[in-house]
Every structure is written in structure tokens, then in C-alpha cells.
Amino acid sequence: MRVGLFVTCLVDLMRPRIGFAALRLLEHAGCEVVVPADQTCCGQPAWNAGDRATSRRLALKLIDEFDGLDYVVVPSGSCAGMIRVHYPEVLRDDAVARARAEALAARTFELTDFLVNVLRIEDVPGGFRGSVTYHDSCSGLRELGVKAQPRALLGLMPGVELREMEAAEACCGFGGAFAVKFAGISTEIATRKCRSIEATAADAVVLGDLGCMLNIEGRLRRLGDEHTRVLHIAEILAGEDG
Questions:
Q1: How far apart (Å, rounded) are the C-alpha atoms in residues 139 and 212?
Q2: For residue 198, which of 240, 230, 232, 235 has the smallest C-alpha distance?
Q3: pLDDT greater than 90 at residue 175
Q4: Where do the structural domains in the chain lie, given as residue ranges?
Q5: Are 34 and 67 in contact (CB under 8 A)?
Q6: The sheet that has 2-5: what strands, in order across it?
Q7: For residue 178, what pLDDT band results from cuts at 50, 70 and 90?
Q8: Which of the listed CATH numbers 2.160.20, 3.40.1440, 3.40.462, 3.40.50 matches domain 130-238?
């Protein structure tokens, strides 16, 4: 099985070890992983900003780069959602391009969804020991139905105690440009999320989208919490959490 790994631009620029963790998980499961060297952005920021021309160019570029692979796996609910849900709309005015977008969407998966529902893995290489709470990122949850999958994978780790936070499905306040355009509202939403995390007294908060990670970790630290770790689900599963 040849699997393309779409690293995402945010992971590449801000926390590349998430990409390496995803790679390790896929290889541990027996996949042949292809990482196109020229990959960049999925086009989501442009699409959300109303820049249809740029999002179209980036969508066509990504479709070309991952052509011919059995699956495409993404360690980000928002980027996977862009490809699966929005690419056919981005390319709706071109019948050929739309058909290619639909074909790509059908074989594109968020990382935990792929591990659970396609590969059906029964073990993970990570050895984390401690308590965690899980934040459900908006795009992964609402566009892709990613909810049970990361929890099932954490359940494969005997050293992990999952402590559910109140309002785990509530937004963290990031929302891409929302955090910039509506900083005051975003800060209040993030503060509520951080209070829910702190109430669990978990060693770490785990999640599946780097944008949420950056927002939550930044707010935790500004609130004076220097000890709660903020980890991507791929890091903890792969043992890249050190």
C-alpha cells in the first residue's frame, strides 16, 4: 500500500516532528510512505479569505503531487477537511478538475481515522505513561467525524489514563484568521478551554490539529500554566513526545 503523507505547511514550519511522528506510525503499520518534496499548502487560508484563484491553483498543485497513490493521509483535521469536503467546490467550474478532486477526496483521510478505519491497527509504538485529556478540533470533528478514533488509539496504550474535560468538543478559539480578526473573543474562548483542561489535572492535553495546539499552548502559558504538556496525537502514539 502506497500512502502519500501530506505534512501541511503549519507542521512543516512550526513543529516538524509531528510529520515525522505520522511517518513513523504509517511505516510501523506496514505502509510504503511517499512524501512529495514540493508539497506546500492545501489552500485553506486562501479559500477562507475568499481568494478562489489562489485556492484553485493550490488545489490543482496538490492533486498533481499526490496522483497515483492509494491513499493520502493528513495529520490535521482542518487540512484533511479542506481536501475531502471543499476541493470539489473549489474546482466546481471545471468538470475534469472536479472529478479529479472528488477522486482525491475519496482516498484522503485524517491520520487517526486512517489508522483506525482503514488500517485497523492493534498496537502503536509510543510508550507514554501518564494522564491526558483530549480536545476535539472543530474541522476534524464536524467535517470528518473524528471523535472516537483518537480515543480508541489512546486506548491501545496501557500507560495512558484518559480524563475527559468538560466541553471537549467546544472550539479553542483559533479558527485561523478568526484569532487575528477577533482577538478579544478568541482569547476568551481559549481561556475557557484552558480552564477545562486545567480542571482535569491531566499531565497533557492531546489533539489533532496544530493550529489548536499553538493557540491552546500559548494561552496556557499566558495564564501561568507551565507544566501541562500540549501534544499532537501523532507524537504521543509514535513515541515522539520527548
A1: 11
A2: 230
A3: no
A4: 2-118, 130-238
A5: no
A6: 32-34, 2-5, 71-74, 108-110
A7: confident
A8: 3.40.50
Which residue is it, cell 489508522?
Answer: 115
Q: Are 210 and 8 in contact (CB under 8 A)?
A: yes
DSSP state, residue 75? S
Backbone angles phi, psi at 221, to 5 degrees: -65, -40
How far is the C-alpha of 207 from the C-alpha of 205, rounded, in Å? 7
**What does the CA dihedral 13, 17, 20, 26 come to, rounded to 10 degrees?**
-110
Q: 32 is written with which cell numbers?
A: 510504503
Return the H-helix or E-strand segment holding 179. Answer: helix 178-181
Model confidence pLDDT, tens digit, residues 76-96: 999 999 999 999 999 999 999
Residue 161 cell numbers, joined: 489514563
Give the sign of the dihedral formed by CA 113, CA 114, CA 118, CA 123: negative
Please state the pTM of the whole predicted model: 0.96
Residue 205 identity: V
Distance (Å, whole) CA 205 – CA 216: 9
At 36-51, the pLDDT tens digits run 999 999 999 999 999 9
Residue 15, pLDDT > 80, answer: yes
- Phi first, then psi, for residue 119 (nearest 5°) are -80, -25
What CA–CA distance (Å, rounded) separates 137 from 127? 24
Half-sphere exposure of 132 (CA within 13 A, CB side): 26
